[in-house]
Amino acid sequence: MATTSRASLSLLRRSPPKLPNSKFFSSSQFRPSTFRKSYPCPIWSSSFSFCLPPRSTSTSSLSFRHFSSSPPSMSSAVAASAVDSAVSDESLSSNPLLQDFDFPPFDSVDAKHVRPGIRALLQQLEAELEELEKSVEPSWPKLVEPLEKLVDRLVVVWGTISHLKAVKDTPELRAAIEDVQPEKVKFQLRLGQSKPFHKAFKAIRESADWSSLSEARQRLVEAQLKEAVLTGIALDDEKREEFNKIEQELEKLSHKFSENVLDATKKFEKLITDKKEIEGLPPSALGLFAQAAVSKGHENATAESGPWIITLDAPSYLPVMQHAKNRALREEVYRAYLSRASSGDLDNTAIIDQILKLRLDKAKLLGYQNYAEVSMAVKMATTEKVAELLEKLRSASWDPAVQDMEDLKKYAKSQGAEEADSLTHWDTTFWSERLRESKYDYNEEELRPYFSLPKVMDGLFSLAKTLFGVDVEPADGLAPVWNNDVKFYRVKDSSGNPIAYFYFDPYSRPSEKRGGAWMDEVVSRSRVMARNGTSVRLPVAHMVCNQTPPVGDKPSLMTFREVETVFHEFGHALQHMLTKQDEGLVAGIRNVEWDAVELPSQFMENWCYHRDTLMSIAKHYQTGETLPEEVYKKLLAARTFRAGSFSLRQLKFASIDLELHTTYIPGGPESIYDVDQRISVKTQVVPPLPEDRFLCSFSHIFAGGYAAGYYSYKWAEVLSADAFSAFEDAGLDDIKAVKETGERFRNTVLALGGGKAPLKVFVEFRGREPSPEPLLRHNGLLAASASA
Predict the structure, then answer these.
(1) What is the pTM of this model?
(2) DSSP alpha helices (H): ranges in 499-610?
(3) Torsion angle of alpha carbons 382, 245, 590, 653, nearest 10°?
(4) Residue 151's Cα: distance from chain center in Å?
(5) What does each C-alpha distance from 8 to 191, 414, 518 come to in angstroms?
(6) Cis peptide before 96, with omega less than 30 degrees from 0?
(7) Where is the signal peptide, in residue numbers (predicted)?
(8) CA end-to-end distance (rounded Å), the chain
(9) 521 and 574 in contact (C-beta within 8 Å)?
(10) Which residues are annotated as catalytic?
């Protein structure tokens, strides 16, 4: 995720009126939220993070034409300013970042364009900012609208190069971004600490017209006032200078952390020439390993005879942990994965310590006791409510997780495994897969032929039509793309009018693309940014996954987990694309409190277990045969398999994140690894290895937006499970009721964006405040919770 400072996109929001309290989701805990650019997904299993975060046209009726990073004359105006004597007018006028484009020119932007393009843009924006400060008035046309236009240009252009760094990384692009990043952060801070803007927003808040403003506009204003304080506007000059230095250094460290994880992941390659070493691995994995070998110069490599190359990239790593009978190989690969970015030039240990120290220094400058308080200031929750929820879920998960391990040991012993009495980290995934196969009589690898990417996408789009009344159609060729595998889609309403667009980049490319899966915005829906006589600019998103690529002449054949991941990211995209907010700064995913933003994504995952939905996507790629009914029933029964263990894993991540940002003292008697070991006593049935260095690749909290916020996955999971239970209550087999409930979900959760507080949105959809019971029920943990 691009680690943008609050100041850059202080996208204006407010706390709502109070609602009746519930135990965890008290409306009094609402805070204005910080908008971040992308939303990575949670770590699903003990062996693999599916969703590690990355970093920070013509159409019918002309309903969407341009979303420009600049007005048409911008490039010539910038050139005329002679921002850099080394850069000619001609080179600036041809710089794709400075052109007036319909869609970002992903296919033509190169590292050489970054330095001159960003510097030219920043100089132009700086000049416009100064002029705006001189003329600003406390009104929408004289403050908010010009501010949105100014911010939008930086969002689009910087978002373009940040996205390319995440999906098409090169040393040259890295270096160019690193060079201009301090200048970008400086401008963001300058914008966020603007006293004329702050004074104007305060005047709006205190005006007689305040009560006549829409709820969306009120949230926007109050959030901006809060963000300004969190960006250091109230600090004296000396402290503000210190604050700004901290922000610059944090941005730099975050990028370095992320780059080290990517480089460490790419660095590991294990060449195997003896097929006995990889016994047990399915043909799909062998084909992928052989394909990797071909890409590394082993031209004659085949799935049958090798050689094979194993990497730490997700589609390679996970099959080894699940299926390799060679225990020594599993241990080697596990240890390599566990120790990524923890040694040599790529060691993130010192970077973590410095990040934590700077975050604490920043919190104290702002008058908070710790960084978690800063984080919670812009979320639904408080540290106390989070700790209460995490402990409730931990108590419900512990005994089932202990039983999970006992079941594994018993099964391994029944199979004559020598390690049965001493199962450890590189054994649990392998034996879990064997126990799953034995208990439910299906093999995940056997499901792959039923989940080809084209069929999955067709079924997903059909579901979107049923639930939300929208059509999704291919629009390849309409927008430039960064790789030939990238697909481009148009979303239409029931009248056939385009309402949104999105890119989809599905496959793993370990040499240039970061791991995980994420959704990001390209542009938001906006009335202010509308052009060519249209009433609103349409939203555009991209979805990025790292699933198994096609091998040979076969399409991408997906694991069920990869299917869930696509549904998850599409949920994020739907909230961005189906928003009905026309105020660009609170549209879609913008201004949604961080701990509520996972609601639509996790909600969509539930449909993977819905019979009609699953059967619509589960078609054999060769025969067209539908997944057998008995296999579906086994898949459904296996949904709660090891639910306690998976829940506990997530709770560990949330707990250590919270601990590092509350009580941990950087440079104190405990190291970060001591904290990890201490937290694991209550959150990990099998204690971590003494040399466990997982934190060195915990990108969510050190290079993403989840610092003191990883709990958000569980917080939002409560919301999403309860939201799906509304469809269960209506009757999942009652198509009329499903459509009616889907329309209500679209008109609330998906439509209202950050213009209304999440708890109010939820209550408007559900008719009551959320309950954790549906989540515990879905996970098979309700009985454990009742007895805890």
Answers:
(1) 0.83
(2) 560-577, 599-605
(3) -50
(4) 22
(5) 7, 59, 21
(6) no
(7) none
(8) 37
(9) no
(10) 569
**Token pair listed for 474:** 């291919």
Contact 140, 218 (CB under 8 A): no
203, containing H or E segment: helix 195-206
**Contact status, residue 746 vs residue 764, Cβ threshold 8 Å:** no
Q: Give dist(CA 13, CA 592) in Å, integer.
A: 9
Token pair 């076969």 is found at 554
Residue given tokens 């135990």 in the structure block: 23
Q: Which amino acid is at 123?
A: Q
> Which stretches of 475-564 are assigned E, i.e. beta strand?
487-492, 498-507, 518-523, 540-547
Distance CA 707, CA 658 (A): 8
Query: CA torsion sign, 457 to 576 to 699 to 648?
Result: negative
Gap between the Cα atoms of 546 and 565, Å rounded: 10
Spatial neighbors of 172 by CB under 8 A, at least 6 apart, are 111, 112
Domains of the chain and CATH, by start = 92-213 (1.20.1050), 268-339 (no CATH), 448-639 (1.10.1370.40)
Task: For the chain, give the percent of residues with pLDDT over 90.
Answer: 79
**Comparing C-alpha atoms, which of 535, 578, 503 is closest to residue 63?**
535
Q: CB–CB of 324/212 below 8 Å?
A: no
Distance CA 129, CA 618 (A): 54
Give the pLDDT score at 722: 95
Whether omega before 307 lies within 30 degrees of 0, making that bond cis, reads yes
* CA-closest candidate to residue 181, choices 156, 161, 151: 161
- Look at residues 515, 419, 645 and name the one whose alpha carbon lies nearest to residue 48: 515
Positions of the chain with pLDDT lower than 50, given as ranges: 1-86, 784-788
Q: Which residue has the tokens 């252009």?
A: 157
H or E element in which residue 226 lies? helix 215-230
Q: What is the pLDDT of residue 578?
A: 98
Contacts of 487 (CB under 8 A, 6+ apart): 474, 476, 503, 504, 506
Chain center to CA of 238: 36
How far apart, in Å, are the Cα atoms of 372 and each of 74, 197, 210, 481, 775? 41, 27, 32, 39, 25
